[in-house]
Amino acid sequence: SAVISQKPSRDICQRGTSLTIQCQVDSQVTMMFWYRQQPGQSLTLIATANQGSEATYESGFVIDKFPISRPNLTFSTLTVSNMSPEDSSIYLCSVPTSGGSYNEQFFGPGTRLTVL
Amino acid sequence: KQEVTQIPAALSVPEGENLVLNCSFTDSAIYNLQWFRQDPGKGLTSLLLIQSSQREQTSGRLNASLDKSSGRSTLYIAASQPGDSATYLCAVYNDYKLSFGAGTTVTVRA
Q1: Closest chain B residue by Cα to residue A2
Q2: Nearest chain A Cα distance for residue B49, angstroms
Q3: Structure confidence at residue A53 (pLDDT)
C-alpha cells in the first residue's frame, strides 16, 4: 500500500482567494488523481496528473480554476482559484499501487475546505 | 458514462447482525471494483479490491462478490460491531478512472 499525506488538513478561506493543496506519496507513482467530495455527495474526479505532462481534466473542471502541478513522481499540488462558497468540499488525492492505473487505489486523508 | 448506484442509502442494525450492502453499475466493461470505508470528515480506507476476472474477495469479516455480467457487487460484513459504523463506498474502474457510488451509511447500535 501507499502512504499519502495532504496539507493542509483543513482551511477556512475568504471568497475570491486561492488555496494550494499539497499531496505527498511515500513511493514513486506515475499517475496521481485529484477528487472533490461536496457536502453529502460522493467523490468526483477533477483531473489526472501525470509527471512530465499536463494534467487531464474531467468534464466540468478547467485548468484556470484548478491548476495542478506534478514536479516529480512523489508530489503534486492542486490549487483552487478564485474561490466561492460552492467550492467548499473535501479535496482528496489518490494513487494506484504498483505505478499502474488498474490496481488498488489509495487515498490521502483529504483537505476540508470551507469558503466564506 | 458509467453510473454506479448503491442501495440502501442508509442502514441501521443492532450489534451482531450481518450487513449486506449492494452496488450496481451500468457498464460491465470494468477492470476492477473496489470497496471503501469513509468515516465522517475523513479520507477513504480501501477495504477490498476485486479484479474483473474474480467472483469474490474476502478479508476477515468482510466478503465481497462480483457479478460483472449483471453489473452487481455485494459487500457482506459478518457479525457487525459499533466500530463498523461508517459510510461504505463502491467504485468501479473503467475508461481510465474510478466512478463512485453515493455510498451506504451504516449505523451499528450497541
Answers
A1: B46
A2: 6
A3: 82
